[in-house]
UniProtKB/TrEMBL annotation:
One BP annotation, GO: regulation of cell shape
Name of protein: Putative gluconeogenesis factor
Signal peptide: none
Gene that this sequence comes from: yvcK
Protein localization: Cytoplasm
HAMAP family: Gluconeogen_factor
InterPro entries according to UniProt: CofD, CofD-like_dom_sf, Gluconeogen_factor
Domain of life: Bacteria
Family, as annotated: Belongs to the gluconeogenesis factor family.
Amino acid sequence: MPGVSVAALGGGHGLFASLAALRRVVGDLTAVVTVADNGGSSGRLRGEFGVLPPGDLRMALAALCGDDDWGRTWAEVLQHRFAGDGEMRGHVVGNMLIVGLWELLGDHVPALDWVGRLLGAQGRVLPMAVTPMDITADVRLGGPEDGELTHVRGQVEVASTAGRIVNIQLDPPDPDACPEAVATVRAADWVVLGPGSWYTSVIPHLMVPDLRRAIVESTARVVVVLNLADQPGETAGYGPEDHLDALLEHAPDLRIDTVVADEGAVGDSGGVRAWVASHGARLVLADVAVGDGSPRHDPAKLAGVFERLMG
């Protein structure tokens, strides 16, 4: 589909799956990536150099590598994590490369474009914002209605605190959106949200004011790819319709055109069908799971769904 432009929004393993699928069928593909990670190698580099966390950006670049020897090799190099017992232990090659280019070039976007050229990436990777930020959340401990409300700060902490997330915020609340990301969303034919960690990878895009405005005002058709299961720490006990409700709770003016869900994950539940019907959207049910029992999307199966949907 060389004439179709797609902006895929998210982060981590969920965005990796959607990008690995979309690059197979879309000629004009851009990833807009969450940049609020505060853990692992990304968190250490962020703390030491005062930069955006590079980890989710690195994963998106790896997902856009081709299936030939060059692409597979560079994807492995980019994702390689150092072992040993010294200060380098746990750092990832791709994170170091991205931060090094940021220092050399002094600009996030050209640096990421250079990494993409090196890899032969089949698409472009942009940060959702150029301002370092933290995710915070109000989390209700205990019962869903009457439990104690606590405030949690940091992506890792939000994703791992036991309880039910009531809402999330960004600090600062109005980070500077990446101008290229805003322009890409406004010009796209399709915007894809999900799958991924719902509150720390998907919803944050709707909390950046200029980016959210671009999503809402764009003529692009918005596709939400639902997760295959709930996620402990973020969406424990959520059904498919609860994930969709969470999106609209944080962005009531969001217009969802299509919802893609795994037919096995939805099962006989009528909740998501009723939700889609009441919001004037389209439901696409398909087998998109890897088939080994784990809640992971199969890029090849997901590519087939995208091809039928966008073709």
